[in-house]
Amino acid sequence: MHEGYIHSIESMGLVDGPGIRTVVFLQGCRLRCRYCHNPDTWEIGGQRAKRLTPEELVRRLCRFKAYYGEKGGVTFSGGEPLLQKDFLLETLPLCRAAGIHVCLDTAGYGIGGYEDILKLTDLVLFDVKHVTQEGYRCVTGQEQEESMRFLETAQRMGTPLWIRHVVVPGLTDGAAHFQALREYLKTLRYVERIELLPYHTLGVSKYETLGIPYPLEGVPPLSAGELQVWQALLEQDLRERNNQ
Fold first, then answer.
1. What is the pLDDT of residues 14-59, one digit of tens each?
2. How remote is the C-alpha of 22 from its chain's centroid?
3. N or C: which end of the chain has fewer CB within 10 A?
4. Per-residue pLDDT for 235 more than 90?
5. Closest residue by Cα to residue 89 from 44, 134, 54
6. How would residue 1 be classed by pLDDT, with cut points 50, 70 and 90?
């Protein structure tokens, strides 16, 4: 039995998938996104991590089932949940047996086992870091290939996707970038929703606490209103594809 290293559990999540959801933030991430607001989830172990068995976690989830309704369930986030592959592979069947809808919030940067995980997953919130290899490396400090391996597996298996993309001034914004993003997203299938997420600075204090320099010092936050035009275009593209 594999214990999971868990950063925190949010019992009433409203923005991490459909309906009301329990969001389980797992420890561990190999990416070092310049805008990351959860640097305290980078390491898998450590004194701050809570350790739970799959059975212990699912018992907690079942206590919230009355709130899920027809659309809600659990979302495994992070960090990068795919780094705790063995824990997921033991936990997801228990969720399915309990009738709990399973969503993964992921950048696809795990350690394999993707097909077995996706067989037990109802929805993936996929974080598109950038549309080019150079841009991906600039944003995350890593190469793009592992993320693409996960996405290719999800596409082959027909896994429903919600696409998310964080917009950062000077990094993932501008007309040329958004047009490239539009063209890239048109190549993906099984996309149900697309969300542009405005860059914010809510995690800056965590860097100060951990003694880590903040990579985007001085970059101003965005508001959702500043992204309305591009959000509308992406939604229009999606409607047109779904109506074909």
1. 999 999 999 999 999 999 999 999 999 999 987 789 999 999 999 9
2. 14
3. C
4. yes
5. 54
6. confident
Residue 90 amino acid letter: E
Q: Which two tokens stand for residue 154?
A: 């999800």
β-partners of residue 23 are 10, 75
Q: Are strands 73-77 and 101-106 parallel, antiparallel or unpaired?
A: parallel
Question: For residues 104 and 85, what is the distance between their CA atoms, to the nearest angstrom?
Answer: 12
List of E strands, 56-129 = 73-77, 101-106, 123-127
* Beta-ladder partners of 73: 21, 101
How do beta strands 4-13 and 50-52 pair?
antiparallel
Pairing label, strands 4-13, 101-106: unpaired
Q: What are phi and psi of 198, to 5 degrees?
A: -70, 135
Backbone dihedral angles phi then psi of residue 182, each to the nearest 5 degrees = -60, -50
Extract the tokens encoding 155: 């596409």
Q: In what order do the strands lie in the sheet with 4-13?
A: 50-52, 4-13, 21-26, 73-77, 101-106, 123-127, 161-167, 191-198
- Determine the average pLDDT of the residues in 215-225: 93
Contacts of 66 (CB under 8 A, 6+ apart): none
